[in-house]
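Would you be willing to look carefully at the protein I have copied below?

:::
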Amino acid sequence: MIFRTRFLKWYFIVALVIPLAYILLSYTKDSEPIASGKVRIEKTVSGYQLLKNNKPFKIKGAATDSLFLNELSLAGANTIRVYDTLGLRKILDEAAANDLSVMVDLPIQRCLRELCDFYEDETFIQNNLNTFDAFIKTYKDHPALLMWVLGNEVKFPKRSKSKNFYSFFNRLVKNIRKNDPNHPITTAISNSSKIQIMRIALWCEPLDAISFNSFGGLGNMENDLDKTSLFWKGPFIISEWGINGPWEAASYTNWGAQIEDTSTKKAEQYVERYQQFINTDNTRFLGDIFFYWGKKQERTHTWYSTFSDDSLKTEAALAMESIWKESKQEESIPKIKYLLIDKKGANESLVFQPEITKEIELVLEENGGSHTVISWEILPENWYYRWHDVEEKPKPVFKFQDSTATRISFKTPSEPGPYRIFSYIKNAKGNYATANIPFYVLKKDKTI
């Protein structure tokens, strides 16, 4: 009986391990290039190389829209990643005019918590495939096109949860390959998730590369890639990178508002992260996409924006120009230490009564540079956002008259709730710096 039990145990181990080993080994073979046309990825003696028109091409780019493309090109970038398919013709034309290549996102419906019920509907699948076919045929010959990105932060589910998702995804890859053999295909996942990489490698039609959106998780990427090399060791792109996002903020107020760094501090962080994690000699690395070039609302309108509402440059834009040109750009720009309300910082979770007078101070660094004007405004917290939805900047509840003063008085709003007061400091060179501090206003009958 003991012998039989042991025999069955080893039988099942062998029965499971040998097929699994075969599958894993089959995915670690050196694969031939898939896209073979104008833009392609080639295997070299040491790793992989992206080629455009038969010339080596290292991606140095930014996620953006159709704004500030001339500024981006002049800053030394060569690529943009865009998510807007409705205005794509205009973006491609403007990119070509500015000698920029374009990574084009194709929006794929995400599975929510591994629930993919809509992929059980063949009509839904066929309609999507037909739409993508027409889209690819429309833009495949545009000279600015660099590659296709199948979905942004797609959650590849367990196969047992949705075989039809993989059927759809693989049919889509095959269709694109058939309609456009001249451009590589990738997909962008959140961080360098080992599980997601494994599912793509084992269950998806082969892609030319895998792309990673990574912010706070950048430090884990090399380790993740090492651990997944058993079943995937292909080329990769860092398709979004930057400072920590609002979802991974270093500190919060007591009511859950993210505390945002000053634009000065962010510029330092971009340089540090690039030098530490992006400027890599990994031979599988094809390039990177900085997040974000332009104006973007993500919890606040300043968290990721490199330009102001009136199109002035932040220090982050200058920092990226220094990175792309590989030389420090010396340009005058205001530098902020922090904001204080009644000499208290954001980490003290500032709670006030309504309609009382407070004093806010903008503290500049010693070498903070000259400035011509300082603007202030109070905005309600962007409290009711939906994950992955397009956010809009809340309307200000109060705007202050522009001045040169770094210290002003203000009245707290009459309505209870969470707010932020923003400061924007500008100089004559067309550059600006910004900081904000969250605070909470109680109901009139409440006490602190």
